[in-house]
Amino acid sequence: MEIGEVQMQFAELIWENEPVGSGELVRLCAEKLGWKKSTTYTVLKKLCDKGLFKNDDGVVTSLISKEEFYTRKSEQFVEETFGGSLPAFLAAFTSRQKLSSKEISEIKKIIDNAKD
To answer: Where are the domains of the chain?
Structure first.
């Protein structure tokens, strides 16, 4: 699911405040993003059409959690950039930046938990 930077800021605002009334969302967008009411509703409709959020009777909630959204984006990035190879991604990531002992330990725990 592709969304731009501005839509991402909007999505973060919803996730932080959901369930949020559409009137409250308009107020939050004016305050935090400098948006007009029409802009808020236009972007909301686009993200609802993409299946990220829903607006039922003026109450906006997510259809996909923030964690699920970022999981999907991460999977898509690894698939498109590294042919789906997590080892290739890690090799590229660590070629310029060394992992700390704590990071290595956390990755080992993730791998151990992922084993069948």
So the answer is: 5-66, 85-116
Residue type for 19, please?
Answer: P
Q: Which of 42, 2, 49, 8 is nearest to 22 (CA)?
A: 42
Question: Quick one: angle between helices 37-49 and 22-33, nearest 10?
Answer: 110
Q: CA 68, CA 11: separation in Å to the nearest integer? A: 13
For residue 2, what pLDDT is reported? 79
pTM: 0.78
Average pLDDT over residues 99-106: 92
Q: Which CATH code fits 5-66?
A: 1.10.10.10
Question: Cα–Cα distance between 59 and 71 in angstroms, integer?
Answer: 25
Peptide bond into 19 cis (omega under 30): yes
pLDDT digits (tens, 9 = 90+) for 12-21: 999 999 999 9
The answer to whether the CB of 29 falls within 8 A of the CB of 10 is: yes
